[in-house]
UniProtKB/TrEMBL annotation:
It comes from the Bacteria. Residues 42-149 form the Pyridoxamine 5'-phosphate oxidase N-terminal domain. Pfam families: PNPOx_N. This is Pyridoxamine 5'-phosphate oxidase N-terminal domain-containing protein. It comes from Bradyrhizobium iriomotense.
Length: 201
């Protein structure tokens, strides 16, 4: 089999220990791809959240929840997706990591309706001048990810949950999202950075 886009020596050690190398290779051969399918696009653009894994220049990991309106993540090319960065706590843990280490992993997981998971591993780039800024309500930066491996995961352990209502902080055209209460706590209010100007639609 050609060089794997999915596995390294650590994966292989455990696959060999548990005799799962053959099924792992078959899963990569049959399911892993570098371009998004029409079903991938529908799924990704229907999701109001995903999980983003990054690491700093030393390889120290970080995992972040990213949320927004349905469609805030877009498939923008055969192997590319883009998503906005919204106003947050100002630490820039994920995006700061991307600046020094472009390797990322994204996990899209549906816990309502039909359980579904999709992994996207690739390289990311952060931009303050991306054309998508002009059409993305509430965005202060845009992140584009070029996929190296797109892989649908087995959904068997996903619990069924109900999506009750969207976050009141989700950017919407024509209105300013409220500030989170923690920004007014005594420990923080004297150092809160100003909200950056963003496109409001």
């Amino acid at each position: 089999m050609p060089e794997s886009a999915m596995y390294h020596d650590g994966n292989r050690q455990l696959q060999d220990r548990f005799d799962s190398r053959r099924i792992s290779d078959r899963l990569e051969e049959k399911l892993t791809r570098r371009e998004f399918s029409d079903d991938d696009k529908l799924f990704i653009e229907s999701m109001p959240y995903f999980f983003l894994a990054t690491a700093d220049a030393k390889g120290q990991p970080d995992c972040s929840f990213k949320g927004g309106p349905h469609g805030f993540v877009r498939v923008t090319g055969p192997s590319e997706i883009a998503f906005p960065d919204y106003d947050g706590n100002g630490m820039f843990k994920s995006l700061g990591n991307i600046i020094v280490n472009a390797d990322v992993g994204l996990l899209f997981i549906a816990m309502h309706g039909k359980p579904q998971r999709l992994r996207v591993n690739g390289t990311a780039k952060v931009s303050a001048s991306d054309p998508l800024l002009a059409e993305t309500v509430g965005a202060q930066l845009i992140v584009r990810v070029t996929a190296r491996a797109i892989f649908p995961n087995c959904p068997r352990y996903i619990p069924k949950m109900q999506l009750a209502e969207p976050s009141i902080y989700t950017p919407q055209a024509g209105c300013d999202a409220p500030e989170p209460k923690w920004k007014d706590f005594a420990d923080f209010k004297d150092v809160v950075h100003p909200r950056q100007p963003t496109f409001k639609g």
